[in-house]
């Protein structure tokens, strides 16, 4: 029997591209038995041929011509690991139009243009798979689209940014301040030179948009996600959270409520007993609640050369199986609803609030009264300690409409007895 | 466009069967958009028509004739939720031979005859799916077969029995003894009237056999699994484990070592920092280590009406997609290797050992010397406390060949100064 070989091209040979190359090599001997054919990387698109040649033992695979790959009819699968929107979007579109199947790890692209690319893939009976775009090596897209397809999923909550989880873990376990923990993350290679997308929650926002789209069968784009980063979190907040039995995590939260989808990325107090609370260091996890499965969680490495490559190669193997069985395009876009996205001020949250106020009688009562006027009810109010010229108080609210809470904050901020609103952090979960 | 309907039969209408019926009803409105066709349950096989009629609003679907279902050519999918080996095995085989696709939650059957049934399915180009047979609602079979297919998986470790995990959690958190915790589990419906299969580790053994087969691409049956239950664990063991920074969990452990597969179910000390250590109550979790993905964990409900139905309906939907795309049988048996199974005595473990000995000089040295003779090296040795006529000591060993350890135990048991070997429990993990 002649050996069946499926040819693929790799776009990009950075960390993830190198990982894909390695993982495919590691699987070389078993592929045919495992999936019915071998996958051979025929071409690798790079910008700098010379630099790339040092990375792999087969420099003859390298090219800097996208046209060469696009026009090569023997190449059936394109693996895009360049990142960025342009030219990745154009290349992927051209590949799909040429009948090539595409695997990508590009969360920026999928979070903003996933619908368009899936439609293009469907039109050409191609597969467009992107398991690696969310939570690195952790299987989450396929479980949501297939294993949990019998559910109405009401909530997807993820720790999907390893950099910020590493920083918050250091702040929690070693009482570091944000700036020091960020510096450490940078030194260890967990944070990029420009960490903005991570620490401002944009990266997590892209991932939660992708997951929400699939979980709720309704398109959610990055532009729909309200994002807040972790730069304002202090080790003092984390200490107070601990007193309340909580840790602080940067969560991507997507909820399908009766009247629309809520989707946001925010640092939140998470009760210590919740499975997400013990996800530490650079690990990621995605927690899902469905009407049939109840609670489920998926945990693992959210980034890195080989974990990300694991997800990509899983997608590639799936496409090979589809090619062999003539069923490519078998699972395409599942966004058959068009649910509204709720405005942030219309959503409800619980808040942890830390204030510096005059240390004199009546101040607490005054604050409580303002909160009451805006229908913010107080679950806990604690006078934490006294400094020379002020007292620090911590308030935890019950669930309140975000708009009301912010209106109340404006009034409280203007009160003479209030020196400063030090922290406003949301609290995850329903219970008081 | 005419509505495409795929007809299915349900074998059994117990807890899980009722769950499947409900979940399919819950998905009725969306199915066609989600997967391209509706699934209609056309017949339900039950033993007692009258009793079953009270359970569903469509008693006309009920039948007690398997032949009626088998001979109904319009039925394309058979969902087996009767449990037990016979007649489930015969029914499934006949269904596959008749070209019907089969979904089952039957771990007993899959753990002993999975290979045979998968071969039969492949021969008839049918799907035979069994996601629900391991860890209830938690997606694990499909992630292993597809998402993680780019890995050489070296280890699968699961808390895959909710009953024993509930019992151990109560023993840990509320300091109950085994018998009381079992009684509570029975009262709350977590334990069956005859809890043998759970508390002796057989149930977990079946699940770990199924997972090992898929993870290592080599058939492992229940008969290959060394099982040990939790009936001998005392709250004192749990307290001592805590002093060592560990909890005790019933683990199904499968390892693919260089010289064969190790597969066993045993109560083990698990370091508190390990993700499995915080899996409590009746929750299940499966921890996987692969050469590309590194560590990953899957967590959720391992049993119950709706969680199990979630997994079954996920499989049913996948088959519907395969039928519509003409690619049934797309992923069949993946056991293309024939790795040897290691004998238990040839495997290596670390041990926690609790002994009652004479409270006099030289006893510790005597025990240490016997252990040394059998190449059992001691990682920790602690004199725990003194009673009137004996002292209690706890020993934690380094990694040792099981055979050597048991030989050493025989000698130690016969020592005059040794009153009793109270506990022998394995310790999970490589580190000392």
CATH architecture descriptor name of the largest domain in chain A: 2-Layer Sandwich
Q: Helical residue percent of chain A?
A: 25-40%
Number of domains of chain A: 3
Find the biggest chain interface.
A-B, 59 and 59 residues
Number of helices of chain A: 15
The CATH homologous superfamily of the largest domain in chain A is termed Dihydrodipicolinate Reductase, domain 2
* Assembly context of the chains: homodimer
CATH topology of the largest domain in chain A: Dihydrodipicolinate Reductase, domain 2
The gist of it:
Two copies of one chain form a homodimer. With 432 residues, chain A is of the alpha/beta class.
Keyword list:
homodimer, 432 residues, alpha/beta, Rossmann fold, Dihydrodipicolinate Reductase, domain 2, Alpha-Beta Plaits, 3 domains, eleven-stranded mixed sheet, six-stranded parallel sheet, 15 helices, 17 strands, elongated, NADP (chains A, B), Homoserine dehydrogenase (chains A, B)
Word description of this protein:
Two copies of one chain form a homodimer. Chain A has 432 residues and is α/β, with parallel strands linked by helices. Chain A contains 15 helices and 17 strands. The longest helix of chain A has 21 residues, at 305-325. The first copy, chain A, is elongated, with a radius of gyration of 24 Å. Chains A and B meet through helix 1, helix 2, helix 7, strand 12 and helix 13 of A and helix 1, helix 2, helix 7, strand 12 and helix 13 of B. Chains A, B: One of its GO terms (biological process) is threonine biosynthetic process. Chains A, B: It is an enzyme of class 1 (oxidoreductase). Chains A, B: InterPro entries: ACT-like_dom_sf, ACT_dom, Asp/hSer_DH_NAD-bd, HDH, HDH_cat, HDH_CS, NAD(P)-bd_dom_sf. Chains A, B: Its EC number is 1.1.1.3.
């Amino acid at each position: 029997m002649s050996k069946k070989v499926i040819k693929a091209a790799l776009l990009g040979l950075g960390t993830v591209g190198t990982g894909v190359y390695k993982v495919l090599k590691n699987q070389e001997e078993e592929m045919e038995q495992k999936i019915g054919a071998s996958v051979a990387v025929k071409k690798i698109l790079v910008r700098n041929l010379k630099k790339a040649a040092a990375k792999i033992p087969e420099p003859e695979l390298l090219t800097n011509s996208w046209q060469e790959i696009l026009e090569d009819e023997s190449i059936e699968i394109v693996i895009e690991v360049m990142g960025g929107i342009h030219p990745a979007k154009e290349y992927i579109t051209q590949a799909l139009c040429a009948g090539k199947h595409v695997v990508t790890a590009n969360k920026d692209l999928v979070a903003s243009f996933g619908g368009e690319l899936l439609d293009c893939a469907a039109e050409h009976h191609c597969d467009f798979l992107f398991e690696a775009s969310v939570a690195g090596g952790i299987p989450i897209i396929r479980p949501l689209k297939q294993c949990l397809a019998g559910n109405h999923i009401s909530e997807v909550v993820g720790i999907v940014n390893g950099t910020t989880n590493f920083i918050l873990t250091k702040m929690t376990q070693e009482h570091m301040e944000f700036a020091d923990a960020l510096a450490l993350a940078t030194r260890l290679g967990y944070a990029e030179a420009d960490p903005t997308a991570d620490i401002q929650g944009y990266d997590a926002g892209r991932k939660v948009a992708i997951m929400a789209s699939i979980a709720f069968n309704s398109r959610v784009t990055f532009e729909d996600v309200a994002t807040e980063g972790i730069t304002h979190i202090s080790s003092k907040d984390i200490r107070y959270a601990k007193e309340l039995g909580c840790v602080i995590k940067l969560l991507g939260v997507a909820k399908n409520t009766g009247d629309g989808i809520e989707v946001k990325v925010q640092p939140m107090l998470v009760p210590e007993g919740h499975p997400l609370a013990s996800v530490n260091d650079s690990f990621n996890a995605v927690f899902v609640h469905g009407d049939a499965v109840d609670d489920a969680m998926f945990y693992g490495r959210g980034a890195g050369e080989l974990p990300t490559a694991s997800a990509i190669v899983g997608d590639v193997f799936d496409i090979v199986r589809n090619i062999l069985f003539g069923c490519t395009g078998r699972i395409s876009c599942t966004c058959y609803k068009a649910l509204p996205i709720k405005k942030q001020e219309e959503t409800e949250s619980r808040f942890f609030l830390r204030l510096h106020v005059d240390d004199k009688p009546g101040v607490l009562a005054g604050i409580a009264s303002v909160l009451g006027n805006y229908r913010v009810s107080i679950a806990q109010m604690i006078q934490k300690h006294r400094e020379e010229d002020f007292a620090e108080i911590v308030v935890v609210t019950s669930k309140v409409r975000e708009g009301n809470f912010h209106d109340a904050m404006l009034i409280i901020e203007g009160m003479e007895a209030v020196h400063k609103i030090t922290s406003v952090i949301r609290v995850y979960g329903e219970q008081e």
